[in-house]
Amino acid sequence: MINLNRLFIPLLLALPLFAQSPKTIERGSIIEDRAARKLLQAGDSRLEVGENEKALEIWDSVVERYPRSQIRFEAHLRLADHLLKEIKDFDKARLHYEAAAVETNEDDEKRAYAFLNTGACFYEAGNYGKCFSIMRDVIEQFPTSPEVNEAYYYIGLGHFKLGHFSRAIEALEKVGTALSNKDKQIEKVEAGKRLYVKIDDQDFAILEPGSQIKVICRTKSGDEETILCDPVGRNARIALGRIPTKLNKATPNNGTLEVRGGDHIKVTYIDAHTAEKGFNEKRLKEVVVVGNGVARITDGSYQRDLPAAVLGKHLHLQIIDADHDTSEGADKVEATIQIFRRKTPDEIDDELAKGVASGELVEGPEGEDLKSQIDPLLMIRSVPVSLLEQEQKGTFRLAIPLRIGTAEGTLTGESGQTIRLIYRDEQNLTDSAAIRTSETKIIEGNLGEVRVTRTDISDEELRLKTQLQTASALTEVGNHYKEFGLNDKADLKYTEALDVCEEILVEARKVGGKLLEETYVQLWRIYFAMDKLDLALGMSRRLLNEFPSSSFVDEAMLQQAHVERKRENFPRAISLYSAITKLPTSPLRGEGQFYTGDCYESMALKANLGQSSPLFEKAFLAYQKVYEQFPDSGRVGDAVAKMAAFYYQKEDYTRAIDVFENVLSDHPDANFLDVILFNYGRCLYKLERKPEARRRFEQLINDYPESEIASEANKIVGALKKAGF
Question: What is the average pLDDT across 518-543?
Fold first, then answer.
């Protein structure tokens, strides 16, 4: 029999995803957009050369200095992408994505991307209820955008993590398939990034638990690697896998796909039984390796962009582009250096008059000065250059003297002029060629000796951060194995991650600050994953004591509360969950309120008959507060579901049915829909609506055949059939 107190029926309230401010910010001028765009590109250049902190500062300044410009939305997205993918600060990233998803953003493509990644932040933070809600909004509001595929992908993975395998498969089936005879489009992968493979095959449904699918990746340059793809869920028809790529000489079967610029990867899977009744047929997909080019004018160390070029000194040029690393030797790339001088006022006036006469120059809606539309620089010289590849693959450099004069074919200039490096990036992740540029001013005099200094502490911090990232990656791999039930492999990865973290802990204490804080966070995440609850509790307490203002405080408190709940120390757990609800800026307040009710419910189930009733009342009131006080929480639906179970206990079947119908029609991502359908059928049966009850039981059997209660539903359907319903 099913205990009705475990019933979940999510019922999300009809609230807007992103509330709009009543104050409307006016549209910025073209001049502001141009200035903001230049600043944005300066940040891009910093990021491309590894100056991440500087890039973030520049993008922040775009938002602050140009609050009316449409370019600010691009800056928000740059900041959010870096925070999500590199720093893993999901909460901060989400705030920037939300800022770019507002209706005042006129670019629907970027809005769709912002919406999608807002949901991705909730997914990465483990808030699947909120993730589902946002992903459904993406599908509804941007039905023709490529983000729809991604939205279904996240919905599928979220349900998979929750163990809702039928719904996971249903969502993942709607994602574009990587290996398919119907899809002949050539995909791209950036050298050095991971290659992801997804296979859709109905034959996977008959695989034994723990089985893996082999996919062969062969490069034109000679590498061959095998990817083991894991089926997603029980009775799955979809398998997912991935492999890192690296710009290097091919070494087959080493676990990394070594590639060359312009390389082609053939991804092959042997389909044992095809829909056309064939056997062992190849499914082939071709992927092209590309690189996003970066052009720079630097100092002699090639570490910093050159603030000014000194006449009589060498100019150091650098281009990074994996596309041109095509051989074992030192390859070359071609580029152009252009010299510009400022136009005279007469030249600008002449150009202005011609532009107005031809209609090329038109006054903007803000009354913009037409002169601002004219490029103030005039190119006076262009010199082609060849850059030679260095030991660092895909990196090309050239040192060329900058002379005084005007001789043709040499790099010459005068003080006050501008030098611009131009590189045409033919192949990149976009659909067309891109022009990469870098520029600097010419001066007379001396910038001083170039010095590259790094203190020991910077090197040590870099090493420790790298190890911390390794520990985080190992933990994620362990979580991945755990999801598939491969506990031995998961424990091995957790142990490796723990060894790395414990090794750096002593040094992290010496460095202190953010590094030590993140080490504590990583340690308690590992301990919790390994079910070492005492150690997890101790580490989270240490974090709270030493870093009381940490952005991880609410997460640490939530983990502490989960530990106490697992131990059935419910009063202590309730105290911690309640404390989370009082943190004014925490996105976990709804979680804390929901689990407060969960603890009262668990206590009620263990209490005797006389004591259980008031505890159930407390649980009901706690769940009620979830949607009353935390309407944006992903736990709203679960809380209402618990209340529906309460109505059933009180034999208020009509009220319970109202909740069931709302959930099934409006919320396809509700938790435990199999249990919902089962109890919906029982309510209908109690109200003598037996034909309708049978239809709900049959829906449960058809939609959730792997459910533990499907067999019970099948018995009830059989009995109803015999009775003539």
Answer: 83
Alpha-carbon separation of residue 535 from 88, 520, 526, 541 (angstroms): 24, 11, 10, 10
- State the greatest distance between any 2 C-alpha atoms of the chain, in Å, as a whole number: 103
Question: For 170, which DSSP code?
Answer: H
Check whether residue 304 and residue 410 sit in a common domain.
yes
CA distance 466 to 472: 10
Distance CA 677, CA 680 (A): 5
State how far the Cα of 386 lies from the Cα of 457, in Å rounded to an integer: 38
For residue 408, give the DSSP letter: T
Whole-angstrom distance, CA of residue 594 vs CA of residue 612: 19
pLDDT of residue 23: 41
Residue 641 lies in a domain: no
- 429 and 503 housed in the same domain: no
pLDDT tens column, 219-266? 988 999 998 887 765 555 667 777 888 888 889 999 899 998 888 898
Indicate whether 304 and 438 sit together in one domain.
yes
Top-ranked range on mean pLDDT: pick from 5-14, 26-35, 416-425, 482-491: 416-425
- Count CA atoms closer than 13 A to 423's CA, side-chain side: 29
When pLDDT is cut at 50, 70 and 90, the band that residue 667 belongs to is low
DSSP character at residue 435: E
What is the DSSP secondary-structure string of 171-231?
A: HHTTSPPSB-SS--PPEEEETTSEEEEEEE-GGGGGPPTT--EEEEEEETTS-EEEEEEEE
Structure tokens at 71: 């370019």
- Within-domain flag for 113: no
The pTM score is 0.45
Residues 325 and 413 placed together within one structural domain of the fold:
yes
- Give a yes or no: residue 231 inside a domain: yes
CA distance 229 to 241: 4
CA distance 700 to 677: 6
List phi, psi (to 5°) of 425: -90, 95
Closest CA to 674 of 633, 721, 647, 712: 712
CATH of the domain at 394: 2.60.40
Contact present, 302 and 344 (Cβ < 8 Å): no
For the stretch 313-333, pLDDT in tens is 888 999 988 888 888 888 999
Which of 482, 511, 543 is the endpoint of a domain? 543
Q: Which of 536, 538, 526, 537 is nearest to 482 (CA)?
A: 526
Cα 199 to Cα 215: distance, rounded to the nearest angstrom: 9
* Same domain membership, residue 436 and residue 301: yes
Sign of CA dihedral 179, 81, 39, 43: negative
Residues 237 and 313 both lie in one domain: no
Residue 615 placed within a domain = yes
**One domain for residues 185 and 235:** yes
Q: What is the pLDDT of residues 44-62, one digit of tens each?
A: 888 777 778 888 889 999 9
* pLDDT above 90: residue 408: no
Task: Provide the b/e sequence for 674-696 (b: ≥16 CB within 10 Å).
Answer: bbbbbbbbbbbbeeebeebbbbb
On whether the CB atoms of residues 58 and 90 are closer than 8 A, the answer is no
The parent domain of residue 526 ranges over 456-543
Pair 26, 48: CB distance under 8 Å: no
Number of domains in the chain: 5
HSE at residue 273, side-chain half, CA atoms within 13 A, is: 7
In a shared domain, residues 435 and 463: no
Phi-psi region of 463 (alpha: psi -120 to 50; beta: other; left: phi over 0): alpha
State the Cα–Cα distance between residues 613 and 200, nearest whole angstrom: 50
Measured torsion, CA atoms of residues 215, 221, 222, 224, in degrees rounded to the nearest 10: -20
Beta pairing partners, 242: 196
C-beta atoms surrounding 163 within 10 Å: 12
